[in-house]
Design a protein that fits this description.
Blueprint: H1 3-15, H2 20-23, E1 30-40, E2 45-47, E3 66-74, E4 80-87, E5 94-95, E6 104-105, H3 110-113, E7 118-120, E8 129-137, E9 142-153, E10 160-163, E11 168-173, E12 178-180, E13 199-206, E14 216-222, E15 227-229, H4 232-235, E16 239-241, H5 245-248, E17 253-255, E18 264-272, E19 277-288, E20 308-311, E21 324-327, H6 333-379, H7 408-428
Parallel strand pairs: 1-19, 9-11
Antiparallel strand pairs: 2-17, 3-4, 3-8, 4-5, 6-7, 7-12, 8-9, 10-11, 13-14, 13-18, 14-15, 16-17, 18-19, 20-21
């Protein structure tokens, strides 16, 4: 089983507890999809199930669709890839190196029993390298490769076989024979099968509380066109699958008018016996409450401004939770509240603008007072006396000095006296 498939199956089992019993049996195939789906009551559900490998195409050239070939990769003396041999049903195996004819071969019954092991007689030192067994089924889109490393030794004590973490390593004695195993016993390698009878798809339904082995079969689909419906659900057109399912590879199950009793575990099984295909897709369907209808009248507003609750009636015989739908009428204070937010924002902006203007004016006023005080301090002398503008002082007496005065000093004293009297008069005006 592929590691990805194993991981997916483990996750599906963890998240879908109901699928544990279904996945416990390997006969039911590999779980490739698991989902939880919920649909409202009364709606139409589609459970998807697609598989391109199940598309019906008649294979008239089966013998040319299956091929096996062995390749040899050498790392010394230089890296090289060599085709050793290949084989297909109805044709003889072809050995590419003439020296290896009669020395290297695979069983003639390989396509009947699935054993494609490579047999090497009289092992040589030049046989050392990594061998790859490639299996191709073009019709079933299968490509598989198996790598085996072959080392040659001259000591019988060193012969061994081990796993290096990526491939199997054979250490064989020089001159002996070795068989490199390549086994695939899947039924896809068988011949003589009627392919129109090998492709089958069917849907099963497991209600809650029912064991997996008691699940109901809904429908069987065959690639030949045969169809088998079980129960009245398909006859009543409540469930259906497309008529061209094998042509499109779409096996989706359609369920109309969902009811609570439709919930449960649905599983789609795809079988292709010729290609060895066994797949399952599991869906857990849950039916929820119906979708609410569009109201035709405006909801009433109660006087106490409390929301009015409406409870949908559920019939006693119907399963499902009791759902309460609450309709909230539009409150009148909703507009007033948003208007208050808008006005508060406007007031905040106005307050910020006013504060900026007031601060600007105060700064200008302080700057003016500072300039006036500075100019006054500049005019005050260090002795505390005010320096007067001498331009405003005019000479009181510009007459030239006469020699009539006995002493010029007396004349200068009289002139200074007159000037001081004029200045005092100006100061008191």
């Amino acid at each position: 089983m592929h590691p990805d498939m194993v991981l997916f199956q483990i996750l599906a089992v963890l998240f879908l507890p109901g699928a544990w019993s279904l996945s416990s049996s390997s006969n039911l195939g590999v779980v490739v999809e698991a989902k939880n789906i919920t649909f409202p009551a009364g709606s139409k559900a589609v459970l998807p199930c697609h598989s391109p490998r199940m598309v019906w195409t008649r294979d008239r050239l089966k013998d040319r669709q299956r091929v096996v070939h062995w390749d040899l990769v050498r790392s010394s003396p230089e890296y090289s890839v060599e085709r050793v041999l290949d084989m297909s049903p109805g044709a003889r195996q072809r050995v590419y190196n003439g020296y290896n004819k009669g020395r290297i071969s695979i069983p003639d019954s390989a396509f009947n029993d699935g054993n494609f092991s490579l047999i090497i007689d009289n092992v040589l030192a030049t046989d050392k390298g990594v061998y790859t067994c490639n299996l191709h089924h073009h019709y079933c889109q299968i490509h598989q490769s198996i790598q085996i490393q072959l080392n040659v030794t001259k000591s019988a004590r060193k012969e061994k076989r081990y796993w290096d973490g990526e491939k199997t390593v054979f250490v064989v004695l020089l001159g002996s024979s070795v068989v490199l195993p390549c086994v695939n016993r899947r039924p896809l390698w068988r011949e003589g099968l009627q392919e129109d009878q090998q492709q089958v798809a069917h849907w099963d339904f497991q209600p809650p509380g029912v064991r997996p082995d008691k699940a109901d079969r809904l429908v069987d689909l065959y690639a030949s066109g045969e169809r088998r419906d079980y129960g009245p659900l398909f006859a009543q057109s409540k469930m259906s699958v497309a008529e061209d399912a094998f042509t499109l590879g779409d096996f989706s199950l359609y369920i109309s008018d969902l009811k609570p009793f439709d919930k449960g575990l649905y599983s789609c099984h795809l079988h292709h016996h010729y290609c060895g295909l066994y797949e399952r897709r599991i869906f857990r369907l849950t039916v929820g409450p119906p979708l609410p209808s569009d109201p035709t009248t405006a909801p009433r507003i109660s006087q106490n401004n409390e929301p009015k609750q409406r409870t949908e009636e559920v019939l006693p015989h119907e399963e499902g939770p009791r759902v309460v739908n609450v309709f909230l009428p539009e409150h009148r204070g909703y507009f007033v509240q948003h208007l208050g937010y808008f006005l508060a924002t406007i007031l905040l902006l106005a307050f910020i603008v006013i504060a900026v203007i007031v601060l600007t004016k105060r700064r200008k006023k302080r700057g003016l007072e500072y300039e006036l005080g500075r100019s006054v301090r500049g005019n005050v002398t260090s002795g505390g006396e005010i320096a007067l503008d001498c331009t405003e002082l005019k000479a009181c007496n510009q007459d030239p000095l006469n020699s009539d005065y006995k002493n010029n000093l007396l004349k200068e004293r009289d002139m200074a006296k007159d000037c001081n009297m004029d200045f005092d008069g100006k100061m008191w005006k």
